Amino acid sequence: MRSKSYYITLSLATLFILVICLFPFYWAIVSSLKTGSALFQVNFWPKNPAWKNYIQVFIEQPFGRNILNSTIVAVTTVTACLLLSIGAAYALGRIKFRGRTRLLMMILSISMFPQVAVLSGMFELIRHLNLYNTLVGLALSYMTLTLPFTTWILTTFMRQLPKEIEEAAIMDGANNWTICVKILLPLLWPALVTTGLLAFIAAWNEFLFALSFTMDNNARTVPVAIASISGKSEHELPWGNIMAASVIVTLPLILLVLFFQKRIVSGLTAGAVKG
Question: Global pTM?
Fold first, then answer.
């Protein structure tokens, strides 16, 4: 039986980790409610909260359009990647063929390339396809980063599913399509939610491609929009507005994690215990 000191130590360690993780977001909220010289004063809560910073973000620039752009691009990227990854994961995880391991390693190696290494080639491709400054072009460029990741993760989950389920379906006369879509896919929901959420966060926060492949607010996403916020002069940045915009774009990610937290935990622990 564990001693009382063990639970006290565990509680203190948990509290310390929570403070380390949550303090940056808390300080961003506090900074978003300050203006002028108050930004350089250390207060746990501003005396006169400047809620107008949140309003000015939408008034001074089309920030609502930027949020919509990010949502469309992220959802499109995640949907396309998951649809393609499911079929690829079934083939790589359940069907034995020559060169399967090499193909998996090739997929993993693609995801290891830094963005800047493929930036020039991707720019030429986007320009050749006439997709520059379009949401479709951004979604296509994001897929080059996200698709190898989702394929690799879903393949790992697919391999962990019991073979007896597939063998029973084959005995009943089911083909590969039926086995993948109607039998294995429902068992992959926790993995799909976990992988999809991680891919969504990556697409939502992506900056380099969004900066390189967009020109105006018609296709600009929120990371680029925040970086483009400027003040009345070159040497004066409205940090209150910038922090307010940062808080606004972080809230959807927090809400998604809280809403799908049970699925996420199930997905992360799937296959950890074998019966």
Answer: 0.83
